[in-house]
Design a protein that fits this description.
The protein has helices at about 10-20, 35-40, 60-70, 90-95, 110-135, 145-160, 175-180, 185-195, 220-235, 260-275, 295-305; strands at about 1-5, 25-30, 45-50, 80-85, 100-105, 165-170, 200-210, 210-215, 250-255, 285. By secondary structure, it is α/β, with parallel strands linked by helices. Helix 4 (about 90-95) links the parallel strand 4 and strand 5 (about 100-105).
């Protein structure tokens, strides 16, 4: 585990650091609380903070509190306050300020190791909960919620002028796959398509059923090339024993000034609808004429197309 250790005393920091390194923990040592905090912000692999109650520039309680603000649901950090005072009110104050645990100073080696074992158990459990909350259980890609959460980072970049485009994907005639071959084969088909769609540098998610979305930090032309390549790869797939082949329809849209993720995906979804009614197994690029119908009318048309897809 990567541990940030904060103590203004070189002697104390060296002592604790040696104990940690003896159990193969990676240690980053600081005397100054604010420097430690900046490092924690910059290094997502930090799994634990052990801080003295008296680091330089800010109190240990402040550092616990500020670290807890960094340790979101997506980034677990185990926080231990280390103090020579073991009074009950100090322990309560530490826990109220975001510490997960309290350690005497100087620490007893076996007690320190036991508390870090607890930290590792906590981290493992937290990461598993994050995985379950953000991953589609069938395909292993982002689920709908995680897709939109991760999309926000690309949207922020796009607002500053970086290129971003979206691809909406839907498996053609998927109802027939389930009806004729069974739901197990249908699941195999979804997994096979998902495997092709999970390409590097893309935020990819299963939005529901047989529908997928991709966000790429690329131009419209580059994204269209990607969509065409994916369409051909999927059309060449053989599912199960090789008796089943399938195709997908694709809609592509580009981020416009003042856009939102919903508008970007809505245009791609409308282009996908055009690909469906145009014969399926094709890529259609969204254009400005697709912005004319009201979103509610467009959504009704798209939902109708999905039922017969």
């Amino acid at each position: 585990m990567r541990v940030v250790l904060v103590d203004p005393s070189r002697t104390a920091a060296k002592f604790v650091s040696r104990l940690l390194e003896a159990r193969n923990h990676e240690v980053r040592t600081f005397a100054d609380g604010r420097e430690a905090l900046e490092y924690i912000k910059s290094d997502p692999d930090v799994g634990a903070l052990i801080t003295s109650a008296e680091p330089l520039s800010m109190s240990g309680l402040e550092l616990c509190w500020e670290t807890r603000l960094i340790a979101t649901s997506q980034r677990p950090i185990y926080v231990i306050l280390m103090s020579s005072t073991k009074e009950d009110d100090k322990l309560i104050e530490a826990l109220d300020h975001g510490a997960d645990d309290f350690l005497g100073k100087p620490p007893i080696a076996e007690e320190l190791y036991a508390r870090l074992r607890a930290a590792e158990r906590f981290s493992t459990m937290q990461h598993e909960l994050i995985r379950l909350a953000t991953t589609d259980s069938l395909t292993g890609m982002y689920n709908r919620r995680a897709f939109f959460e991760n999309a926000q980072q690309l949207c922020v970049r796009a607002e500053t002028g970086y290129a971003m485009s979206a691809i909406m994907v839907d498996i053609d005639h998927f109802k027939d796959v389930n009806d004729l071959h069974g739901h197990d084969v249908g699941d195999d088909a979804i997994c096979a398509v998902a495997h092709e769609l999970m390409i590097g540098r893309a935020v990819v998610g299963r939005l529901g059923g047989e529908e997928f979305a991709l966000l790429l930090d690329r131009s419209l032309a580059e994204t269209t090339e990607v969509a065409e390549r994916l369409r051909a790869q999927i059309a060449a797939l053989k599912i199960g024993t090789g008796a089943l082949s399938l195709t997908c329809s694709f809609g592509v849209s580009q981020w416009l000034a003042g856009d939102t993720i919903d508008r970007l995906l809505k245009r791609a979804d409308m282009a996908l609808y055009e690909a469906k009614i145009g014969g399926r197994n094709r890529v259609v690029i969204a254009d400005n004429s697709m912005l004319t119908p009201s979103y509610s009318d467009a959504s009704s048309r798209i939902r109708g197309a999905r039922k017969s897809a």
